[in-house]
Amino acid sequence: MSLISQWVDNTLEATGMDAVDALRAFFLLAAATTISVSIPTSLRSRFLAYGPRANPASISTGSAPPRAQNPSAESKGFLDYLATWQVPHSYFTHFYVASVLSSVFWVAQLLSRGVVFQAIASRVSEDHQRHSMSLTQLVICCVLLAIQGSRRLWECFVFSKPSSAQMWFMHWLLGLGFYLAAGVAIWIEGSGTLLTKNLTLAHLQMTNAPNLRTFFLIPLFLVASGLQHDSHHYLYSLKKYTLPEHPMFRGVVCPHYGAECIIYLSLALLAAPRGEWVNKTMLSCLAFVAVNLGLTARNTKTWYAQKFGKDSVQDWWLMIPHVY
Predict the structure, then answer these.
(1) In whole angstroms, what separates CA 114 from the centre of its chain?
(2) Can you tell me the distance from the alpha carbon of 42 to that of 300, in angstroms, rounded to the nearest whole number?
(3) Residue pLDDT, tens place only, 153-165
(4) Around 12, how many Cα atoms within 13 Å sit in the side-chain half-sphere?
(5) DSSP H helical segments within 189-309, as ranges?
(6) How many Å apart are CA 39 and CA 34, to the nearest integer?
(7) Separation CA 172–CA 150 (nearest Å)
(8) What range(s) does the 3-oxo-5-alpha-steroid 4-dehydrogenase C-terminal domain occupy (predicted)?
(9) pLDDT tens digits, 102-151
(10) In the chain, % of residues over pLDDT 70
(11) If we measure between CA atoms, which residue out of 68, 81, 79 comes closest to residue 44?
(12) Residue 237 and residue 56: Cα distance in Å, rounded?
């Protein structure tokens, strides 16, 4: 316990924040960094594109940077070298393994008031603890996040195809960090309640009548999950990369990305602490999701235009019709 507490204390002391603010900062900093990398073409082409959207010409296959005659060429050579640090695109499965294991771990920690939970929850400021989620909210949101991670893990196994596609290793590390952080974000604004009340298996029975928030948002979560699943199934059914013709893809490049954003939006609203409209930690989580998927959707539209002609997707929305 002392080692875990000391590590948490040292980390938070270095940031000058409590656990809630540090978690929000992580998501927002990750989103800002992703945007920054997307602006210069020299970085975007090397580090953001992956899978079939990647430009092979932008990634050197050598193991060392080429010799350069001037500082600019030397810089490009170093970037090319960094871009060779790739992992298989199939490592995406690791994200959802991490998500599911994180959900299981935190449910066990919350039920047992384990040492890791205590180390983090006790480092939440009194102001954040005063505005806390209810036990019912905590149960609902943790279960829904576990469902999301489990479904995506199942899809990774069922809808996978052999592929030589790769992604930059930082994509992989950042993705793992995101899903591990999301496992904490889903309950941390309920730490005030969890520190004063015991969460037991009886709370999982959910005998309370739903309020208006849960009445509308749980179906929204489930519908978005279903639409995303249908999109993934359709893309898997394609024999080769073609312009999607499924109704969900009419005029939308990546509707499954839009569905992902709606899933996290519903969680952010469902997890709103007492007296708040939204859970700001989960909203920060959504910000990272929206930025990451939004940039990927833009790259996908560019790739579609190059492969199928600019006119084929010129008027298409990226993720959500009439929104983005």
Answers:
(1) 26
(2) 18
(3) 999 999 888 777 8
(4) 21
(5) 191-196, 212-237, 255-270, 280-308
(6) 9
(7) 19
(8) 190-324
(9) 999 999 999 989 899 998 998 999 988 988 999 989 999 999 999 999 99
(10) 85
(11) 79
(12) 25
Closest of 11, 50, 8, 12 to residue 295, by C-alpha:
50
What is the C-alpha to C-alpha distance for residues 39 and 241, in angstroms, rounded to an integer? 27
Provide the residue type at 13 as one letter.
Answer: E
User: What gap in Å lies between CA 15 and CA 195, rounded to an integer?
Assistant: 24
Residues 6+ apart with CB under 8 A from 234: 244, 246, 248, 249
Tokens describing residue 31? 């989103």
Angstrom distance (rounded) from CA 19 to CA 175: 20
Neighbours of 172 (CB within 10 A): 21
User: What single-letter amino acid sits at 241?
Assistant: Y
* Tokens 């709370």 sit on residue: 203
3-state secondary structure of 87: strand
Instruction: State the residue for tokens 């109704």.
Output: 247
First to last CA, the chain: 46
Question: 135-158 and 255-270 helices cross at what angle (nearest 10)?
Answer: 160
Report H helices in the chain.
2-15, 19-38, 41-43, 71-83, 92-112, 115-121, 126-130, 135-158, 169-188, 191-196, 212-237, 255-270, 280-308, 310-313
Phi, psi torsion values for 87, nearest 5 degrees:
-125, 155
